Amino acid sequence: ADPQSMNNIGRIMCRCVLDDQPLGRGLGRFVFEFLADTHEWRVFKDVHSALAVLSDFDPELSQRWAQLLVQPPAGLTLDLFDPDAAEEEVPPESAAMERAVLAGCRHKLLTIREASLRALRDGFTETIDLRLQLGALSAAELLRMLRGNTELSREQLLGCFAWPDASVSAEAKADFAAAGSDAPRYLREIILDESPETGLGSLARLHFLEWSTALTALPCGGLKDPITLKLYEGADEHDLPNVHTCTHEVHLPPYATREQLRAKLLLAVEHRHDGFQMSNLLRFLRTARSGAASRCSLEFGVCMNIFVLFDSCGYLCCPRGTAFRSSNLPRFLDFAHCTDKYDPAVDDCYLPVSKALTAARLRKEQQAIEYDEGEGEQKRRAERREAGLPEDLPERPAEHLCPISQDTMLDPVVAADGFSYERSHFQQWIYRGKLTSPSTGLDLPSDVVRDNHNLRKLIREYAQTEHDKMMKLARDFVPPNARAAAAAEARAAK
User: Fold this and answer.
1) Can you tell me whether residue 228 is helix, strand or coil?
2) How far is residue 205's CA from residue 469's CA, in Å, rounded to a whole number?
3) Which of 37, 336, 358, 369 is deepest in the core (most CB within 10 A)?
């Protein structure tokens, strides 16, 4: 990848570490050692350390080179290990072969991708330099902290839940008892079952965690927010379990048996990368065949759009389906929002699917405002005309406009400078290295933003609110003689 993309990825990785979001198995150990600036004295200190790290990157090559140390053959030249080295023969001696293999490990792990690694580290240390803290960790501790627990025991998975029977309030909130469902008990038994045939195997447990939390590994400190179980209202035994990964909620239909729950659960977990709200998709298909109307039709419409968007994205920067649902993205990708202007230097390191989903949500906001200012406003204009009021509303106040784009905001957020901006425009401002306030020009103490729900509501309801104000003024300022005449007319009509 180009240096700018690697720099952006490094910044995301730093955010990931700060938010305790494990990276999983995707990156080799050497990347972490390089980020911690420990690679020279911990990886390349001797050939055996270098081979151990190489095995995490290229196991087959590491094994072949390790065999050369056992019985050094004759006739090998140094450039076979390091193409940049001179073409001189390596003596069939242990010490000489160790130096050659060590040079080969350095070439494979560092030399051929040093520019990309440096760009990655520059991004990783741009906001806060964690090298001192990470360098104090042992290799095993460093891997566990950054990768998380990639092996999950039954007890660890069980501990990720806040079970409904833990308290009376939790049980009432989950609604299983009221419905007479034993689904939570069945799930607990499935997790604790030691047999992969009737329970969950080691890989299935990890996939279950990913399905329910969007985490590919368990953070070394455990989940900050436990997984909660709730009754899937309106669902039956034919439906798949549903999940809200942002809030770590698993919604279980009232399955009648443990076997039924396990079969549906494994099917849902298997399709964790396949689409948006797979259970709603299947429910819609079933109800559509029966000719019945369903509230899932709207959700299915969203599914159809997402499938089209996903299939048309030829510039995905991760394996297909890695993080398909917006809720499947870790929290550090919350700021990867979609804009109409596509900048490859910035946007290529983010998931287009995430941005497509965000764009779909913002389009709904835009459609609601356009309807309110279109058909809804036509009705209100007629009412104002009948009341003898001006038909046009006052112009929107400046607070409704993004200081960066000067357009009406759909998703306003408050930045550290106290001003509100359209989220996507402010994020693009930050991504392009502008660490100053768009409004004041002063340095921003932080790039953290928070939702401005009050302003969003004011923008959404502006037209109706202003109309109500004008109509109230019209009612309040009716001349007294006109009121008296209307009252007399009403009495006469009786």
Assistant:
1) strand
2) 57
3) 336
Beta-carbon-side half-sphere exposure of residue 58 (alpha carbons within 13 Å): 12
Q: Which element (helix H / strand E) includes 231?
A: strand 227-231
Q: At a CB cut-off of 8 Å and minimum separation 6, what does 299 contact?
A: 277, 280, 281, 284
Tell me the per-residue pLDDT of 146-186, one tens digit each, with 9 for 90 and over.
888 888 899 999 999 999 988 888 888 888 988 889 999 99
Q: What are the residue ranges in the chain where pLDDT is below 50? A: 275-357
**DSSP H stretches of helix in 225-273:** 258-270
**What is residue 286's predicted lDDT score, i.e. its pLDDT?**
43
User: In terms of DSSP H, where are the helices of 37-128?
Assistant: 47-57, 59-70, 94-109, 114-124
pLDDT in tens, 330-342: 332 333 333 333 3
Q: Which amino acid is at 164?
A: P
**Global pTM exceeds 0.85:** no
Pair type for strands 450-451 and 161-162: unpaired
Tens digits of residue pLDDT in 28-46: 889 989 999 999 999 999 9
The position carrying tokens 């806060």 is 128
Three-state secondary structure of 161-182: EECHHHCHHHHHHHCHHHHCCC
Could you give the C-alpha distances from 490 to 88, 193, 472, 494, in angstroms and in order? 113, 79, 21, 7
In the 8-state DSSP scheme, what is residue 40?
A: I
> For 78-110, b where at least 16 C-beta lie within 10 A, e where not — what string?
bbebbeebeeeebeeeeeebbbbbbbbbbebbb
